[in-house]
UniProtKB/TrEMBL annotation:
CDD domains: Arginase. InterPro entries: Arginase, Ureohydrolase, Ureohydrolase_dom_sf, Ureohydrolase_Mn_BS. Binds 2 manganese ions per subunit. This is Arginase. It catalyses: L-arginine + H2O = urea + L-ornithine. The lineage of its organism: Eukaryota, Metazoa, Chordata, Craniata, Vertebrata. Its cofactor is Mn(2+). Pathway: Nitrogen metabolism; urea cycle; L-ornithine and urea from L-arginine: step 1/1. Its EC number is 3.5.3.1. Belongs to the arginase family. Keywords: Arginine metabolism, Hydrolase, Manganese, Metal-binding, Urea cycle.
């Protein structure tokens, strides 16, 4: 029996009347599954949304007092003849078209007054998620939690995988370096270089490092987390993004930001990642701003765990990140108590004043 249930029973017994549980003002949260994998080469990341749902995300969010509107999984139409672009970029039309659908969905959810959680899928989905977010809130700020910077341009990418490139399409300052890909004509850059902060970087390509440095983009690598500690990193992140104005936050979490020991079931693991506690602290701090508007949780690939335990660990971590962003705490919370029952309270009182719920 949960604590809340037992307390409610106790109170009911004491007052002899039924008691309405008090709830905090609810977040209304839209869940959007985006089972998309064409931004990278490994099979299985399209099974991320189902795995995360099966691990009880909806129940957890509801238990935190959120009203959950599950939009289900988007279905993406196959793009025929999606040839490689420029001898390297893979599936541009598929990525472009899926993200157009996602952008419309995220935008619609925000117009309806919800916060939005995008369940990936690979990280190319940030193209649609952030574009749809910016359509409603053009002044948004992005916190990108990832082992990788995902800021290659189609001309610097060595793999041709679009999940390593979304940020380059979104930044206004990079548009003279980014060719128009087939399937991307709907996409307009919506971020400036000062609107994004990276946390957790530890595998950055030379061209990406050049971009981060020369465009003066704020980032905190794993080394920076070691130097300053996660508390200082979050303080500086918010100072950078929010000191001039309060604005909606887009949190884009690649599960590979975490150490592979915690999140092994992902396509591009890199050792030396975030600890569980650092990840929860980031999520708690984002929640505490009260400004979280859209979040992505991406790159969970249930086919890549070496065992069922590895898959479960990765999926449960993803659920914890999302739940913590919407109010789950490590210190506990009270949504029922306004005052503790004291031994002197009469056992059989009908007085509503005795117990204020
Ligand atoms: Mn990523």
């Amino acid at each position: 029996m949960s604590l809340r249930t037992s307390v409610a029973r106790l109170l009911r017994k004491q007052t002899g009347s039924s008691v309405q549980l008090q709830r905090r003002p609810a977040h209304s949260v839209a869940l959007v599954g985006a089972p998309f994998s064409r931004g990278q080469k490994r099979n299985g990341v399209d099974r991320g949304p189902a795995a995360i749902r099966n691990a009880g995300l909806v129940e957890k969010l509801s238990g935190l007092g959120c009203q959950v509107y599950d939009f289900g999984d988007l279905s993406f139409t196959q793009v025929p003849n999606d040839e490689i672009y420029n001898n390297i970029i893979k599936y541009p039309r598929s990525v472009g078209s899926a993200n157009q659908v996602l952008a419309d969905t995220v935008h619609g959810a925000l117009v309806a007054g919800h916060s939005c959680v995008t369940l990936g899928g690979d990280h190319s989905l940030a193209l649609g998620s952030i574009s749809g977010h910016a359509r409603q809130y053009p002044h948004l700020a992005v916190i990108w939690v990832d082992a990788h910077a995902d800021i290659n341009t189609p001309l610097t990418s060595m793999s041709g995988n679009l999940h390593g490139q979304p940020v380059s399409f979104l930044l206004r300052e990079l548009q003279d370096k980014v060719p128009l890909l087939p399937g991307f004509s709907w996409l307009k850059p919506c971020l400036s270089r000062s609107d994004i902060v990276y946390i957790g970087l530890r595998d950055v390509d030379p061209a990406e490092h050049y971009i981060l440095k020369n465009y003066d983009i704020q980032y905190f690598s794993m080394r920076d987390i070691d130097r300053f500690g996660i508390q200082k990193v979050m303080e500086r992140t918010f100072e950078h993004l929010l000191s001039r104005q309060q604005r909606p936050i887009h949190l884009s979490v690649d599960i590979d930001a975490f150490d592979p020991a915690l999140a092994p079931a992902t396509g591009t693991p890199v050792k030396g990642g975030l600890t569980y506690r650092e990840g929860m602290y980031i999520s708690e701090e984002v929640h505490n701003t009260g400004l979280l508007s859209v979040m992505d949780i991406v790159e969970v690939n249930p086919l890549l765990g070496a065992s069922q335990e590895e898959v479960s660990a990765t999926v449960n971590l993803a659920v914890d990140v999302v739940a913590t962003c919407f109010g789950q705490t490590r210190e506990g919370a009270h949504i029922v108590f306004e005052e503790l029952p004291s031994p002197s309270s009469p056992d059989e009182s009908d007085s509503e004043e005795q117990v204020r719920i």
